[in-house]
Amino acid sequence: MAFNATAVLEMLRGKRMLFVGDSLLREQYVSLLCLLHRAIPDASKSFEAVDSLSIFRAKDHDATIEFYWAPMLAESSSDDGADHHLADRVIRGAPMNKHSRFWKGADVLVFNSYLWWMTGDKIQILRGADEDMSKDIVEMEAEEAYRLVLHQVVRWVEHNVDPKNARVFFVTASPTHASGGEAGGNCYGQTSPVAAADAESYHGSTSGRMLQVAGEVLAASRVPVGVVNITRMSELRRDAHTQTYKEQWAQPAAEQAADPRSYADCTHWCLPGVPDAWNELLYWKLFFPARDQAI
Fold first, then answer.
1. Which residue in the list 22, 132, 268, 276 is annotated as catalytic?
2. Which residue has the higher pLDDT, 119 or 156?
């Protein structure tokens, strides 16, 4: 059954849907708004963004669809909604109270976190509740830090979500095509997906170990967490990134402009495009939960 915007809006009547994660999940969020907007009269919808929180309102349905920027889910040095960079990431090892106060009361929660864990072997952890993000720092292997944070998220879900009234989902890793591998080069100039004949033998760059950690932690949750597995299907879409058509933090230098491959964005996706397919999967999990194992 194809995505039905009217059905989604009716399901969300009087409810709050919240996406929590990084810029890849924000792309899925924006995709969902695009899929829904034609079913809502212009006078009956609004959008606002304040700091890390973006809110879309479907007024006739008394519904909100929101996005909260928390790229590592735990509190981190990259939590500013506009000024955030991958380098020098520090996360707080204490409970995630700063973020989770925005999550309370959501009827549908959609989490993701992967990309920001994959730029280096170690993650810096700030211990304790001190506001100074520059002291009492220890290093932890990325996989184990990821496990620690996902355990915290699950613990929060178990204490704050009533599965009779709310749904929780986790979107798996959005792959990049930034370098090498069997795709050959990066995504620049790619105009077609990995061919069907090559798909079985093609292996992307996504960390299987990180996917395993997420699967293990989420499966142990006492509150069901629906896993929206976007990873493999997206790995095959090396052609679907924004490449050189994304607004950059800064204008490309002359040497970059002479070699577009050097600054092509092979992480984020074009809209409409791959994130629309992610929302198709989410739609099926929302409306046909009994078929979860088949998706």
1. 268
2. 156
Query: What is the span of the domain harbouring residue 263?
Result: 5-75+99-111+160-294
- The active-site residue, picked from 174, 265, 276, 292, is 265
Q: Is 100 a catalytic residue?
A: no
The alpha-carbon radius of gyration of the chain (Å, integer) is: 19
Q: Judge whether 142 lies within some domain.
A: no
Nearest alpha carbon to residue 156 among 209, 225, 214: 225
- The counts of H helices and E strands in the chain are 9, 12
201 is catalytic: no
Q: What mean pLDDT is predicted for residues 60-67?
A: 98
For 215-254, the pLDDT digits (tens) are 999 999 999 999 999 999 999 999 999 999 887 767 777 7
Q: How many domains does the chain have?
A: 1
Q: Is 23 a catalytic residue?
A: yes
Residue matched to tokens 């230098």: 253
pTM: 0.92
Catalytic-labelled residue, pool 23, 205, 207, 262 = 23
